[in-house]
Every structure is written in C-alpha cells, then in structure tokens.
Amino acid sequence: MKDVPRILGEYTSGKKGPLLFVSGGVHGNEPSGVLALQKIFKILHKEQPAIKGRVVGVSGNRRALMENVRFIDEDLNRVWTEENVRSGKEDSHEKKEMFDIIEVLKKVSEKDHTKRYFLDCHTTSSDSEPYISVQVVNDNDSWAHEFPTYIIRGFSDIVKGCIDHYESRIGMTGFVFEGGQHESKTSQLNHEGMIWLAIHYACGLDLNALPAYPEAAKMLEDKRKHRKTFEIIYRHGIDDKDEFSMEPGFSNFQKLEKGQLLAHQNGKPIYSDWNDYIFMPLYQSQGNDGFFVVKEVKEV
Ligand SMILES: [Zn+2]
Questions:
Q1: pLDDT tens-digit profile of 189-206?
Q2: pLDDT tens digits, 80-123
C-alpha cells in the first residue's frame, strides 16, 4: 500500500470519556486494519456523531506496509518486551517503529481520559472465523466478552513482546482481534465491524444515529448467539529438522474427534486425543507450532 501516516485518524466530539487506541498493520502484510480505520475515520469526520472521549487510530509497521512484507528486520509484534522498552535502543527498524508508536500513545494519553482501551487488528495466513485473542490480565477478559465473536484465552501468553502485552502492562484494557485471512475482503469488513462496536461499547457511540447503520457491525453482531470462549489445552511443537505435514482440509476452530488423523510427523501418524477444537493448523512451510487444541470453557 502507499505510505500511510502514523496517525490514521483522531476523533472526538468534545465530551469527556475514555481513550480508544486502535492499531492496524503491526504486521506489514496485514493492511486490512489500516484500510478499515481509514474508512471509519472518513465517516466519523463527515457525520460528526456524539461520542464520549476520543478514538485514535494508528498504523503499525509503516515501512513494512509500504513494502507489503511482514516485517523489515524483526517482527514488530515481538519487540515490546520490558527490556527493549526500558533500554531505549533503536537498533532495528521495528524498534524505531515501536518507540514512535509509544510516543504517539503517550501524547494522546496526556489528555484527560476516564479510562484507556486498546484494540490491535490483525489477520491470519489461513482462512478463519474472526476471533479475539485476549491476555487475561486487568479487566481484559470481561471487556472482551462485550463483543460477539469467538474468544481465545491464553494464546497471548505463549508468545512474548506483543504490542497488546505492552498496552496491558501500562494499565490499558483491550485485546487483539484477528479478522480473518490476510487478503480476504471479509477481513476488512470484520475489522470495520469490530472497530464500530469498540467505539460503541467504549465511547457510547449510538450506531443507530448514523445515517446508515454499519453493515459490518451488524454482520459481527449476528455471531453473538454462536459465541464460544476457548482455552488452549495443547500445543503440538515441531523442531526445524522435523518433517511435518498437516492432513489437508482443517480450518481454525474445526471440531475434532478422538482417534481422528491430524498430521504426519517424520513419517508417523498423529491422531487426535481430543474431542475438542483445532486451532492454527500449520499449512505453511515455516513455523514451530504444528497445531493447537483448544477447549470450550464457560465464559466466566
Ligand atoms: Zn498479525
């Protein structure tokens, strides 16, 4: 995509309230959150609806977005460790982007807000139902349950240095939203829907007061009756030297049965020990996670 500014948009109608800080394109091959934000700010500025507080949208890895690659030197969603942030070292392209985003967040946080929310928009390499990935700290989990999509707990704890970890660490409330496959048109709609709903739930925007109720928000709301909450119960790790091939046709959140053939590793079949759900089956050549198994749990 063309060069995008760091601040994709900022909107307030002058009423006191929370800050909603939305990021898109933290991975440069995932432009759909950026496109969704641009579209929504256009509508907000045109229609000038009343909201409480302020919405700010930022782009993630600007150079990687421009070059349509996932990252330049290292994954921008792995650099937000306490150590990196404390050290102040800008020794990779992504660390520069990180400190730039931190500056923006600090600046907008100086204004008087009643609470601070974040939403980090991503997409996935394979087709998927949209889902929320939530780190169970602060009041993130109950906040996530305001929303209609699938919710995964605990995935965020497996990886380190994500932007949402940083945001939670500094006392903000929020989650990561995976809108669907990278290139899918539906992913952008899912992002639009999620951002509209976040503005509604965080800043009290009356979606019915807009000249046209956002179709994308309705599309997501329709998923509420089928919402499930999952926890990770198993990770199938693989080594670089392992030969691993997933059986074809698995999609995210597909129900498994005990004894079902899942994959082959070094020529040996791997069968399901579970009657639960598969998550992130590996169909790319690279990666150390073969697949995960997630279990449906009670919401609270
Ligand atoms: Zn991503």
A1: 999 999 999 999 999 999
A2: 999 999 999 999 999 999 999 999 999 999 988 999 999 999 99
Phi, psi dihedral angles at 160 (to 5 degrees): -120, 150
- Report the chain's terminal Cα–Cα distance, integer Å: 41
Query: Would you state the structure tokens that stand for residue 78, as one six-digit string?
Result: 């792995």
Instruction: Give 47 Cα–ligand 1 centroid separation in angstroms.
Output: 31
Q: Give the residue carrying structure tokens 């759900």.
A: 277
State in Å: Cα 30 to ligand 1 middle.
6
How many angstroms does the Cα of residue 69 sit away from the middle of ligand 1? 11
- The verdict on pTM exceeding 0.70 is yes
Amino acid at 77: N
Residue 80's Cβ-side half-sphere holds a number of Cα atoms within 13 Å equal to: 22
* CA 124 to centroid of ligand 1, rounded, Å: 7
Contact indicator for 89, 147 with CB cutoff of 8 Å: no
Calculate how far, in angstroms, residue 13's C-alpha sits from the geometric centre of ligand 1: 31
- Locate 45 and state its tokens: 């500025």
- CA distances (Å), origin 129, targets 117, 118, 297: 24, 21, 18
79 Cα to the center of ligand 1, angstroms? 13
Q: Which tokens sit at 181?
A: 């496959």
Structure tokens at 27: 């991975």
Ligand 1 centroid to residue 120 C-alpha, Å: 9
C-alpha 24 to ligand 1 mean position (Å)? 9
In the reported structure, the alpha carbon of residue 286 is separated from the centroid of ligand 1 by a whole-number distance in angstroms of 15
CA of 26 to the centre of ligand 1 (A): 6
Cβ 178 vs Cβ 194: under 8 Å: no
Cα 200-203-209 angle, rounded to 5 deg: 50
